[in-house]
Write a structure and sequence with these properties.
8 helices; 5-stranded antiparallel sheet; 3 domains; Cytochrome Bc1 Complex, Chain D, domain 2; flat; binds heme C; 7 strands
Length: 261
């Protein structure tokens, strides 16, 4: 962390060497670009270049764990979150933090005009024919194996959702990767990778759904594995997929305060 901190401080100094921009009535492309620059130099280190690396936070899609006003987000950026790795940025101005907030807000997914499907039909495809709850949780029902989808409409575009259904392995979120181990005793287990270090690996076992831990010393093989998410093939019409996607896109957090109109 210490090293990361020094790096952050150095990067901050570099970014702040540019003349500070003042808060404009309406942000211009140039303002957003510099908000993006600040993000990529100071935040991407921990949050990831696309902003989704910190669990339950997806800054790259304007998704936060709670509805924040702009002023609250500025405060988070300037003061950090005490007792967590989220650092304060004492040398950043409020105007600069606001530029970052404008940039994050501009990334919020708006699927409202792109929906061709019927979300009600999609919901029954999800619960019945697709058997999606055997691997996914929505609002407390289902399995955590493939990841929670309760707010997936906030963070994925229609195009991304469609791709997830037709070609699941094309893009896999870093926290949803699948991993396979073979023990020296000959047992093979695969599941969602929860944690891995030099000595051990923890999986959410794909067959039992239970958390299991293995010592590296007891394994004869271990590696990433293909996602078990079944691709929807030609027996699923484009309309079926559009309905399913419409349902997924409708799974959103309650309306946020302070969102840009
Ligand atoms: C050293 C790593 C690190 C850096 C650098 C960092 N963050 Fe964070 N950030 C975190 C962590 C970890 C959390 C979650 C903290 C917690 O558990 O409450 C977080 C939380 C947040 C949150 C709250 C999200 C929510 O939904 O509650 C926001 C907003 C945020 N960061 C924005 C930024 C921005 C913007 C920058 C760059 C100016 C930045 N962060 C730099 C690690 C970092
Ligand atoms: C056998 C378990 C399994 C079943 C059944 C399954 N999924 Fe998945 N799903 C996964 C796994 C594992 C991932 C994460 C890896 C990946 O993206 O391929 C995933 C990823 C996803 C994602 C992307 C999540 C993200 O954060 O981007 C969506 C959307 C999704 N599934 C929807 C569905 C729908 C809809 C169905 C039913 C038609 C379904 N899944 C059935 C295991 C499953």
């Amino acid at each position: 962390m210490r090293k990361a901190h020094l790096l952050v401080t150095a990067l901050l100094a570099a970014v702040l060497a540019y003349p500070p921009a003042s808060r404009a009535q309406h942000e211009t492309g140039a303002d957003l670009f510099s908000g993006e620059q600040v993000f990529q130099s100071l935040c991407a280190n921990c949050h990831g270049r696309d902003g989704a690396l910190v669990p339950n936070v997806d800054l790259g899609h304007g998704v936060f764990r709670q509805p924040y006003s702009d002023a609250q987000l500025v405060a988070v950026i300037l003061k950090g979150i005490p007792n967590t790795p989220m650092p304060a940025n004492p040398t950043m101005s409020e105007a600069q933090a606001q530029l970052v907030v404008d940039y994050l807000r501009s990334r919020a997914v708006d699927n409202s005009s792109a929906l061709a499907g019927d979300a009600t039909k999609g919901r029954s495809l999800f619960e019945d024919r697709g058997n999606c709850q055997s691997c996914h949780m929505v609002a407390g029902t289902g399995s955590p194996l493939g990841g929670e989808l309760t707010r997936i409409g906030d963070s994925r575009t229609v195009a991304e959702l469609t791709q997830s259904l037709r070609t699941p392995n094309a893009v896999v979120q870093p926290n949803l990767r699948w991993y396979a181990v073979t023990t020296k005793a000959g047992a093979t287990v695969s599941g969602r990778l929860m944690n891995r270090d030099a000595f051990s690996v923890q999986l959410l076992d794909g067959s039992s759904g239970k958390l299991r831990s293995f010592n590296m010393a007891d394994l004869s093989a271990h590696s990433f594995a293909a996602s078990p998410m079944p691709a929807l093939g030609s027996d699923w019409s484009d309309q079926d997929v559009a309905d399913l996607v419409a349902y997924l896109a409708s799974l959103r957090a309650p309306a946020k305060q302070g969102a840009t109109p």
